[in-house]
Design brief:
Layout lengths: L1 E6 L6 H12 L3 E3 H10 L3 H10 L7 H12 L7 E5 L5 H13 L6 E6 L2 H9 L1 E4 L5 E3 L18 E2 L6 H24 L3 E5 L4 H16 L3
Parallel strand pairs: 1-3, 1-4, 2-3, 4-8
Antiparallel strand pairs: 5-6, 5-7
Helix pairs in contact: 1-8, 2-3, 6-7
The structure holds BIS(adenosine)-5'-pentaphosphate.
């Protein structure tokens, strides 16, 4: 089982890079934000709780996300491992993940940190668009679709995420970067952290992540 955690501030590029890493390693992407947004859309009890926090740019409480995410990680399609996008987000989540993996004789093999200065992220999020059907990620400035407003991959309409308003983005930065740094420290202390400069163009960030993955995991 190969478990790779993808870390980064809101807008650092996790959702852009996770599918590429997943294809490279032949494992699925498990994205906590997508899981929560699906619950909000489906109007489940989890979605109702999550929406209260997400709409204010706050992390949902550990007790709301941890069991659900670890249950997802235990599903059949992740027996060979997974790329974790957006989880863990707090030291408590990181410890819960370590315990769950240890119980399966496994561990986090690699934590990849996409490092981007906070002040550049607000502008990036303002020009982000995602597709309505599957959440494929675009940027009207740095990564536009072939046809304006239409997803290249599934033809659905491109929309702005509700939490991408400038006010919510600033709240996300203020509230989520300090716990992210705790998680970065956790993996640094475990000796599995590798950082990549997320200021580079998308394809260069991809190259850096794949090189670190191959080097650290010994992928041929
Ligand atoms: P989530 O969906 O995980 O959002 P996030 O972490 O804030 O990350 P984003 O999806 O906003 O950004 P990203 O890093 O994926 O960047 P992207 O690739 O899109 O979480 C949403 C909410 O759910 C949270 O706020 C929280 O409330 C809750 N939540 C989720 N997980 C939780 C957890 N574990 N615990 C508690 N609460 C949780 O890229 C951004 C833009 O930049 C795109 O337009 C892209 O095209 C562009 N771009 C990407 N790379 C580059 C580049 N190198 N150069 C130029 N542009 C680039």
């Amino acid at each position: 089982m190969t478990v790779v955690v993808l870390l980064g501030a809101p807008g650092a590029g996790k959702g852009t890079q996770a599918p590429i890493l997943a294809e490279h390693l032949g494992v699925p992407v498990l994205a906590s934000g997508n899981l929560l947004r699906a619950a909000v859309s489906a109007r489940t009890a989890l979605g109702a709780v999550a929406d209260r926090y997400m709409s204010r740019g706050q992390l949902v409480p550990d007790e709301t996300i941890v069991d659900i995410f670890l249950e997802r990680l235990a599903a059949d399609d992740a027996t060979g491992g997974a790329i974790l996008d957006g989880f863990p987000r707090t030291r408590g989540q990181a410890r819960a993940l370590d315990r769950a993996l240890a119980a399966r004789g496994s561990r986090v093999d690699l934590a990849l940190h996409i490092d981007v200065p906070e002040e550049l992220l607000v502008a990036r999020m303002a020009s982000r668009r995602i597709c309505a059907a599957n959440g494929h990620v675009y940027n009207i400035a740095s990564n536009p679709p072939l046809v304006a407003g239409v997803c290249d991959l599934d033809g659905s309409a491109l929309i702005q995420r509700e939490d991408d308003s400038e006010e919510t983005v600033r709240a996300r930065m203020a509230q989520q970067i300090p716990p992210l740094m705790d998680v970065v420290d956790h993996y640094r202390a475990n000796g599995v952290l590798r950082s990549v400069d997320g200021l580079r163009p998308i394809d260069e960030v991809t190259a850096g992540l794949l090189a670190a993955t191959d080097r650290e995991l010994g992928v041929a």
